[in-house]
Design brief:
This protein is of the alpha+beta class. Helix content is about 40%, strand content about 20%. The chain has 10 helices and 12 strands.
Length: about 270
Amino acid sequence: MRRNNEDRTKSRRQQQQSVDPAALLDFVTPKEFVELPSKGIGYPSGHPLYNKETIEIRFMTAKDEDILTSRSLLKKGLALDRLIDNLLVDKDLRAKDIIVGDRNAIIIAARSSAYGHIYETKVECPNCGEKQQHEFDLSAADIHEPELADSVETLENGNYTVTTPHSKIKVEMRLLTGHDENIIFKLMNKNKEGEAMLTTQMKLYIVSVNDHKEPVVLDHFVNNIPAGEARFVRNIYKDLAPTIDIKGDFECDSCNHEQELEVPFNTDFFWPDR
C-alpha cells in the first residue's frame, strides 16, 4: 500500500513537471513601447538607451503588485527600481541607470496600462487645507524634452558643460538617474526637514569644475558659489533634464479656490481601489 502511494505521488509530480501553463492558457503578457522624454539624449555612447526615443516594457502582472506591497523594499526606497527592472524587456538595462524623467515615463505608462489613465486620489486644498477626492488624467501628461541653450556644450560621454556668467567657471554636469534618486531618498529620510537638498542635488549632478573632479573641490564650489551663479547652474540643469509633468485643474468643494495641481505620487497611484 505504501509503495502504491509513493508511486501515485511520483506520477503526479511528473505530470505537474510536464505541464506548460503558458501553453495551456494560451496567454501572453502584452508589451508596449513608451516614449522617452529624453529622446535618448544625455546617455553616454554605448548605453542601451543612447539616442533611443522609446523603450519597450511589458504590462504589470499580479506578481509585480507583490513588489509594491513589500515593506522591506518600500522602506529602502527600492520598490520602484525592482518594479521597473521586472517590466523592462531589455534585460541589459537597469532601472538605476535610467534618467529620472525616463523612469517617470515608464512608471506612468505601467500604471495606465494596468489600471487605466484616470487616477483618483485625495488631495489637500492649497487655500483652506480641506481634503477631498480629485481625478487626474494621466493621458494628459506633458513631456518636457531637453532644451540646450547656446551656451551649453554637449560632450561625447552624454554630459554637458556651461560657463558661469560672472565667475567664468566651467561646470560639467550630468543628468540624474535612478541611482541618484535612491541616494536622495536615503538623505531625505535622515534629514526630515529637507535642509540642504538644493546643494545636495547640485553635488550629485555636477561632475567637475574647471576640469577638477575631486570631491573636496566640488563641495567647496557648491557651498561657496554666489547665489546668483548657483541659480544660473540650477536653471541650466532644469532645462536640460527631461521630465513628464501631469497637472490638473482643481476647484475646492469647500472654498471654491481654483488652482492647477501636480499629480501626487502616493500609495493610491498603484492601488486605485484602496
